[in-house]
Design goal:
The structure holds two protein chains of two kinds. By secondary structure, chain A is α+β, with helices and mostly antiparallel strands. Chain A is built from six helices and 16 strands. Chain A has two domains: 53 residues, no CATH class; 311 residues, Porin (Beta Barrel). Chain A has a 16-stranded antiparallel β-barrel with strand order 1-2-3-4-5-6-7-8-9-10-11-12-13-14-15-16. In chain A, strand 9 and strand 10 form a beta hairpin. By secondary structure, chain B is an all-alpha fold. Chain B has one domain. Helices cover 83% and strands 0% of the residues of chain B. The chains are: A alpha+beta, B mainly alpha. At the A-B interface, helix 1, helix 3, helix 4, strand 6 and strand 7 of A face helix 1, helix 2 and helix 3 of B.
């Protein structure tokens, strides 16, 4: 009733508002164009721009469209084996090219040299090795399955796929059992299904299954084999364990299997990793612990960037003969200290000793490792 | 004359009363609207904070499985790197989404 009165009152007096509008229009019309533009721009700046910016930020974090990324891992490692120095410069470029929402092309290569003084000579001589570690096309089919095709790292254990890059590995020497399952080349050529998903609250399952064809292409060799890996990860205690299997489909047609274990207890900056592998050519295990001294009771500011590493391993020679595995039972331990200038630049050092029927020996390593990541495009919000 | 003045005063008082009532009602509506908007904004902020905390937790849980905690990269670059990790380290779809959100905030 009251609102009806107000409305009817408005209708009853139509002339004055029109008159006021007329005055307002006349007043507005009297304003110079640049003043109107300034007022409009101010409105945009004050009201619309923050809204667009907020929307843009939300888009950044949720649906930022990926761009190609190029990274270079590099290092210069000096190794002393039995008193003989070896210089090992290494460069490993990695290129990632995302396509659409579900595709990714990824490739990594390695160029490395092993330079040592020739017997009776001076200076350092050696060969430069080039290799395509992987060149694969990935399709993320759904939350459970990713399909990969091309040349890929063999998913046997965790070292070959995850811990091998020079800027990641805690100790610069390879574990003795690394060639088991991963083969001499560390890579396969063919297709692979893989994925990781939540199987239950606090329980994640990851898996990989592959078929590899024989390849004799230079720098891209691979064996004909089939295999896979399955693991369980418990995010709460940060514990992972699993197993791997491989069946060679050429020559000796032998099997290899392995177990892996990884634990990062939350309260302390400690990593414990271990692998066991067994094949016709031999078997063995390694266990490694790495402790970041960020909780040191004294000099914490200086020691927080220091990481102490220790690895113990044993290898038991098998019935077969292999060019890449030790020819006799071998025990080895290694201790290292790394200093992180940043998360991707560090100084590395280690001392190790091997005990074998073929002879004992010390191995010292000293070097620098770094990784540089570059966006191939505008890395911002669009 | 006096009666007209009384009527005019009464009408004026009634009009002022109506305007005040209408203003108060409108004000209440605006207040309710602003309260609702504020509540929605607070809920959204709380959700974002929850996702940020969860993303940070998953970042620490997953990334340190292989290497030291990386520094943040630009958002579009980070989207590629997280996809790479989805394949390489077989992290889950949910981990990828939350880590990406955390790393691009």
């Amino acid at each position: 009733m009251l609102f009806a009165y107000v409305n009817s009152a408005k209708r009853a007096r139509p002339a004055r508002p029109q008159c006021r509008d007329h005055h307002r229009r006349a007043h507005t019309a009297a304003l110079p164009a640049w003043t109107k533009l300034t007022v409009f721009a101010s409105c945009v700046v004050l009201f619309i721009a923050p809204a667009l910016r907020a929307q843009s930020q939300a888009q950044d974090s949720a649906t930022a469209s990926p761009i190609p990324v190029f990274t270079i891992s590099s290092g210069f490692i000096t190794t002393f084996e039995g008193g003989t120095p070896h210089l090992g410069p290494l460069i490993s470029p990695l290129l990632l090219v995302p396509i659409g929402q579900n595709w990714l092309i990824e490739t990594r290569g390695t160029i490395e040299a092993d330079l040592s003084p020739p017997p009776g000579g001076s200076g350092f001589k050696g060969v430069v090795e080039k290799n395509v570690d992987y060149l694969q096309l990935d399709y993320i089919a759904n939350r459970y399955v990713t399909v990969s095709a091309g040349r890929y790292l063999v998913p046997f254990g965790i070292y070959n796929e995850r811990l091998y890059p020079i800027w990641i590995r805690n100790l610069q020497t390879d574990p003795l059992i690394l060639p088991i399952g991963a083969s001499e080349y560390g890579a396969g050529t063919g297709a692979m299904l893989r994925g990781g998903f939540d199987a239950a609250p606090g329980l994640e399952v990851n898996y990989a299954a592959y078929f590899s064809a024989h390849s004799g292409v230079s720098h891209m060799e691979s064996d004909r084999s089939v295999g896979g890996r399955a693991g369980i990860f418990l995010p709460g205690p940060r514990l992972e364990f699993g197993g791997s299997f491989q069946h060679l489909l050429q020559e000796s047609r032998t099997n290899a299997f392995g177990l892996h274990f990884e634990w990062q207890p939350s309260p302390i900056p400690l990593d414990i990793r271990a692998e066991y592998a067994r094949s016709h050519d031999g078997g063995g295990y390694w266990i490694e612990s790495a402790y970041r001294l960020s909780q040191a009771p004294k000099w914490r500011n200086r020691l927080r960037n220091v990481q102490a590493v220790a690895r113990m391993q044993q290898f038991f020679a098998g019935l077969g003969e292999s060019d890449v595995l030790p020819g006799a039972d071998t025990n080895a331990f290694e201790f290292g200290l790394n200093y992180y200038f940043r998360d991707d630049i560090r100084f590395v050092s280690s001392y190790g000793r091997q005990f074998s029927a073929q002879g004992n020996g010390n191995i010292w390593t000293l070097g620098l490792t770094a990784r540089l990541a570059l966006p191939l495009g505008h890395g911002g919000s669009k | 004359m006096t009666a007209q003045r009384w009527i005019r005063s009464g009408m004026l008082g009634l009009a002022v009363g109506i305007l005040l009532f209408a203003g108060a009602a409108g004000g209440n509506e605006g207040s309710k609207r602003s309260t609702g908007t504020a509540s929605q904004a607070a809920t959204k902020q709380q959700d974002e904070e929850t996702e940020r905390v969860e993303g940070e937790k998953r970042f620490h849980t997953n990334c340190s499985r292989c290497h030291q905690y990386p520094h943040k990269f630009p958002p579009r670059m980070m989207a590629t790197i997280v996809r790479h990790m989805r394949v390489r380290a077989t992290i889950t779809d949910e981990d990828m989404r939350l880590v990406l959100r955390y790393m691009t905030q």
